[in-house]
Design a protein that fits this description.
homohexamer, mainly alpha, Ferritin, 2 domains, 8 helices, extended, metal-binding (chains A, B, C, D, E, F), Ferritin-like (chains A, B, C, D, E, F), Ferritin-like_SF (chains A, B, C, D, E, F)
Chain lengths: 304, 304, 304, 304, 304, 304
């Protein structure tokens, strides 16, 4: 359960309106690496965490913090839109390139749909969606996604930091940059801790190594003609997981058969000349189609 | 430019058809962490790489490999669908729970739309889309995304490995698991190399640390009541970046003003009682709206 | 079955082209509250109406009218795009801010994709989609959605009315505003009529009131610190449904247990330290997993 | 800024797992009328509210409550998935229709992607997205959308109430039904209060009535042949807004000209035979295209 | 403007309910090649047609017909859902595989969201969207898209024809198949007529042939190792346009330079080692960045 | 399996940067008819082709070529973005309309998200998605889709050709136009060859003609009042398939019953007054609901 205070986590005080920048700032609220994403990613990870204690508590702390960041960006956008020329027509651009830039660079939906407020969309107006988040239950995989997400998010914030010279906007972004720095450190530390606690190892997930074809777990397949791919650490020496020697496969050859589909079912009307053999006829009666085959596998002697 | 051979990278030979599994396997081709995602993510990163040499060459090698994995999964799905009861009606389930499971668990579009082949969609039928990928130009941020993506991908493959007992399917997955293991090691090694080469440091991007509000770059804001959030390494000691001491803010308070938007423009019809002051009137003429303010900032003395 | 005449429902005669406005007007054709939405929402509601007579007939009348509105907006957009500088390059902006505004503010797809016509998308270019509509079969819920949709639609039309000074465009919008006024009145009247006819009461749906936990059906949970939430009619007196006294819960406390998931299935690789008890092992054989439990519930004595 | 407690708003205690129901329950978390929608709709409305006081405070109370409902449904789904046969293959259905139903009716992503937890998607696996919400700044329009949303949400909850016989699930739903009842009453009461406070009238927005073509604001256009459309209150008497007499237009005729686009720009390659006159030639030089026309409108005498 | 009659274009009378088939039939209403697509594709083409007369009139006839097909499929789905076990729980599958198939194979949203009616979505529940249609203004390109769309649509209908043995459903599909046959013939005939009328030639669009690099307009680049690609008519003889001789390029070589991006702007934080030269510095002042370069191109002597 | 060379298929050398054009060019990489679409459409068709030999080999050749076109457009976009004013603020537009046009017309995500590179999205920023492609297994239907796709793609390229005067951009487009010309010829030739080989006839699919209601396979239903619809070849003479005489139905009448749904299930809460008869009660026990009816159909005498 949540509680809310109207006071913002940090100051959100632009010195002057800037509707073009309000458009760009949408990326930080509704982009794939914006505040909505980290909020919902952490909430779902926290609720899906299968241990009591420090990891779950940590995730919920950060998730709750991020919701306050959505609030900050939404507020900043509304304030940057103050007095935006939402209701001026094209000809008002005559004689004034700044007006022209604003008319061209505004987000139409910030005026038409939300009446001067933020949208839940990115800087191109594409609505935020739930496929941006990941909460797999595996904390190593998820913390890597979190560290990656905070890296992309801080990168975008850093770029946006240079797209304005408004001291109030920059002041808020200095706070966001700092939190993103801490959050990167935090998830990197949490990855170390997972290993220290013996919960996860280096490869996610870590207990199928003996099932996999080990001979294919070690080398770079050289399939593009750039000549320097073998110059890096990934092609030599012990792997970061400490369990494999890494190498370079200079001229990899296909190991499989020729690509093809099975002969088609005539009732599906795939074009066919018989080249792959008899057409496939699924049957539930006397003929043996897929169900027959599955049933055979389950019960090899149906008459027994 | 690309070239293609019809021979598959590895064997793709299911022992028997299984349309329910063919449905689930869609996740590995068109899911957010499926083969299409890594293919396009690496291609775009490679094309967007701003250095000649080992990093670019590495990325293009892996990108080209992943395209062959899309091919393998698409082929596996087609082969698992051989003779699927695409054209049987509901009543055929009478007396046979396996048929019932198949009729319920098939992907309708694998029959109706693609005629017995894979779709470019996930295991719930949602089409793959370009927002799943990231190619930011910043190699540290991107390699973290790559390591995270390979972790999620291998995790999903591992789960799918347990959902079948078909030896042919399992054999292919043993290869995929192995490659995902190598790819995790590879991106982790590449992250180390970026630092060793002096190209990127621990925090992405790494040169705005002096701009940010450092006092907010260090501590966990405790906003959820789980009691153990301060038990982890993220709340104590030196941060992984070596530049911050990490701490715990047990009772964080809001640092900003009260959340509010500016007074509305009457022509946008936001409900208003004047509580925030005079309504905002944008103007291009005598009144000073946003454009006037921006112009003032640009040219403080328009009559000068 | 439908019939069509080429004559438009109302005049669509812009005085002059305006490609920036043509971009904004996309919101009224392909936005969440545009004409496509009301057309398809009413069609699906009408086809899904489970009564013969006035309600179904009403819905089909309005649905058929709205299709004509899609036609009007599509025509207006094409006419506003006449001679748009679709094929001019950036440098043509030199010396002319109006050209600059147009180059920046045009919808690229209106030229590249539709060759000077409307797209089936909103003012940010996001395609219209079927999740914008609702047709639940419950007329009270749906008529409320209709009244809400017409309110949002008229609001957007009113905002767009102020974004142009073209008398021909404004003339068409005066007609659209009028129809939206009537449609709001219409759905509000239809809601009254549903109650007068004894078909639906105030709460949708209205016959589960005796199933629900009544003690939680009456009061505002005060979870945000704004001090005036109890000043409104929603916190005092008889509810609009005439069946509840409304109140205010000043300090609501959680009524449930602590949030947690169940112990994980090891084959799903959720990180786990045993804190929630034994890992869950689904079984179809001797062990009792979920299926065993479900079967127990169905047939408590399988050997009986 | 937000705070969180791990204790749930209400009990979430299913008696037994039911993965098929866990699939259906996704609608309440990630469907167009699920808990994510009301959470984000109310948050954005609250942040975008342009008045201090009771309305803003009310919206934030409810928004904060709804976030706790997302948490409840996510937790219920995880608990219903305990021991789900995520890792069983198709042939396990042999001999057991309940297993068959579960294999067919499960959400594959709840196992493959989230490892036994909820997805941020609806019951068909389509991710939740930001276009489901509306926050227009106009409280009358938005409160109508809220009342409609709560009606659709309670309707779906009521349907889901009948799709299970698990007493623990039903107990939670009894709470959700009750809250949805209160929320419907609440928004209906708030609509009354807006009018009582003189902030909004019956038609949203309410101050353009004198601009619109009043003669078209009153009557039902009879465009479908159902004979009873004029039997309802919407075709007779005073409108709910008290400002119009409602009527019936039995044989509406088109009032506009014939539908057509303008002559095409040859560089856009629309097929053309000259039927609409000279092709349109945009020009920035001597010829007068759209820019010339716009410039004329702005400055009728460019040589003056 | 449109008019509607309640009578259906053709009989829609299933003999018995079949909720699994009702799920599959969604493809014909909301799939990429379903009735919504052809309806909206033809409407937008008709409204965007830049000639008076037979082509525009033809398109509008067919568009209006297709709307009636949406109505037919929506009605069929509702009738197939009569008495569907929407409100039964999983355990009801015990002992009855047909029930199991139905519980697994139903569309949950057809019950939860639409209350027993069709959704505006495909057979996997993905909402229909506006990007499925095309209306380019070029009739040759669009008529090809129409012929292709009708081909895919009829193919899907033919597959669905074999997935039921309900005589009433099959009767309706016999009508749909027939109309799709006519529509294929119709668009193929219209393509011939465009050429006969001298409006379009074989290649769309047909008047840039002299601009293109003709030497690359004739031969198949052999980039995959399948040995028979040169056995077809596309590698020999006169092209269908009558203007090119077609050939085969057995060993195509790249004609371009090495792939690379430009040196990055430091403020965008792309990882960089200087390998591509000096970082790019955009400037509006003394330095010459992109704007300076563009201005040079426009006005080579700014001081002149 | 694929291999890659860093050398581009053709020269990609813009003379100068142009960020507005870089925005528009997104349509050719991530639009519905851009290079991603043809790449993935052909790959999936090739992998799904059910014959060995020339058709499959052809498709794979072209698919592999198209991947190189994605690479070319992505490279061109990055080069056009060199030094783009990504990090300049709105006021820099003062005094310079070209800057204004650029600030308004840039794609914000090309700077914020990809750091000066292409996105996998169209010219309005909507991500490319898998529903743009089709691979049905039926080569006639698919080759028609391919010819249509190449027509739309070349049309868009032709429009973009006129939107720039950069000789380097135009040079690349001359190559793309030429390839699109060949590809149109190629798929048209392949359609002829399918018929010559006796694999497919004119109507897709071609073997259900005797099942369909032939009387409805021949005439244009005249449902819109444009008077010239019968003037074309589609209303007279032998159809292109050589098997039907085409005609004109001047006054088509509905052939079906009145549109209605079945009586609702009370537990789904559709508003109902009994007009359609007794409410539907699904049953698994003594009452006969849908399952009873289905079981009757399967086994008419369950006691026999």
């Amino acid at each position: 359960m949540f509680r809310h205070t109207d006071y913002l986590q940090f100051d959100v005080k632009p010195e002057k309106p800037d509707p073009v920048y309000a458009h760009k700032l949408q990326e930080l609220i509704g982009g794939a690496y914006g505040e909505m994403t980290v909020t919902m990613q952490y909430l779902m990870q926290g609720w899906n965490c299968r241990m009591k204690g420090k990891y779950k508590d940590l995730i919920m702390d950060i998730a709750t913090e991020e919701m306050g960041h959505v609030e900050m960006i939404a507020t900043m956008i509304a304030r940057l839109l103050e007095g935006a020329p939402a209701t001026d027509s094209t000809k008002n651009a005559a004689g004034d390139p700044v007006v022209a830039a604003v008319l061209g660079g505004m987000d139409p939906q910030q005026a038409i749909v939300s009446g001067g407020g933020a949208m839940l969309a990115n800087s191109n107006g594409v609505p935020w969606n739930g496929s941006y988040i990941v909460a797999s239950g595996n904390l190593l995989a998820d913390f890597r996604s979190n560290a990656a997400g905070e890296s992309q998010g801080r990168l975008q914030t850093a770029r946006l930091f240079h797209m304005t010279d408004d001291p109030g906007v920059k002041d808020m972004l200095r706070f966001n940059l700092a939190r993103d720095t801490y959050h990167q450190n935090l998830w990197l530390a949490a990855i170390e801790e997972l290993k220290a606690d013996g919960l996860e190892d280096t490869i996610a997930p870590d207990d199928l190594l003996d099932e996999e074809h080990t001979e294919h777990a070690t080398s770079l397949w050289h399939l593009s003609d750039g000549p320097d791919a073998d110059k890096g650490r990934w092609a030599h020496g012990t792997a970061p997981d400490g369990k494999h020697e890494m190498g370079f496969l200079a001229d990899p050859q296909p190991l499989g058969d020729k690509q093809s589909g099975p002969p088609p079912d005539p009732k599906l009307y795939a074009t066919y000349d018989g080249a792959l053999g008899e057409p496939s006829k699924p049957a539930f009666g006397t003929e043996k189609g897929v169900m027959g085959k599955i049933k055979d596998a389950v019960d090899p002697d149906p008459t027994g």
